[in-house]
Amino acid sequence: MNDLLSPHLSESAAADRTLHNRNMVHADFDKAPFTIAWEVTRACAYACVHCRANAQPQRDPRELTTKEALQLIDRIADFGNPILIFTGGDPMMRRDLFDLIAYANEKGLRCSLTPTATALPTVERLKRAREAGIRRIALSLDAPRPAIHDDFRRVEGSWKRTMHILHNAHEVGLSVQINTTVARHNVDILPEMVPFIEEVHAVQWSVFFLVPTGRGQIDWMVSAEEHERIFNWLYDLSKKAPFDIKATAAPMYRRVAIERKKAEQNGDEPITFQGAGFQYADGLHRPTKGVNDGNGFLFISHIGDIEPSGFLPIAAGNVRRDDVVDIYRNHPLFRDLRSYDRLKGPCRTCAYREVCGGQRGRAYGVTGDYMESDPACILVAQARERGEVW
Ligand code: SF4
User: What is the pTM of this model?
Assistant: First the structure.
């Protein structure tokens, strides 16, 4: 524990932190990310309301060439065997996609794919993706009702197409993960998603909490109180749902899960991180330490910019001129993001900062400061209500 912070922690909070550290499976995020998202292209036929990538219909001529992309995979493999997500834009818009996946797979990287719901993910292409080494695809679906989903994605027929791809994926033996972006458009109908996810045999529900990457999107975010309510609901659901549940871009779900578990257990029993929200049956061997932007997570943009995440779009370098391993380990931006004592406000003094730390991209998107407290956390909202300033 950092001594500078101890005066701000209550005794029980300090004990909590020690407990967390003792039970945390070691994952050295100073050395290597656990997950790398690679935006292989920004081209996409869609224009979704919340789109992080501000996707464009045409491929950018500055995109990495195949040769550069293969060189990047070589260097990524020097991190060990992180999960490599081929994303976009629509990754299917890149003609060499399957060659890149096959090469990454050969190098021992655990590859996943997030295709957009266009006409491109046919049975044949999904079969090629599987042959290249993909085991699971992630599909975005925000509601079991087509109208809500299509309205948010701004493409009529998108829901139907997504369902079509889902069936195609199952046909070729790919498992499917459903990603749902929680925002004002669907917050009230989330319970309807539960029987739906089960019915379509998705193996995981990744519940993604909106990170605003532009001022206009802040209005789409749900309140800190609503975040807290949904976290508690997800915790309850995770105990009985026949699919894995993952709260994405919401590290404070870990606080809720720990608090709930502690309340359920007898006083001195140690809290382990094997419970709901920390372990998944997806075979990806996720770490129990919280992954956060630049701290276990790395993003490569379509033109090779090296960023802490797609939601914290600050380039610390570019793979064409910089070494991605060196940037991740040593660039001041990445080092800042792994320095809990540089956080500001309630996140800095929080007993849960090492398992949570607040979503850095959201702090940046809302306040313009990536070390600020995460405004979607109830503890931060309550501190503001008490008139605390920092
Ligand atoms: S105050 Fe910050 S570190 Fe603590 S739980 Fe909330 S978001 Fe996480």
Answer: 0.86
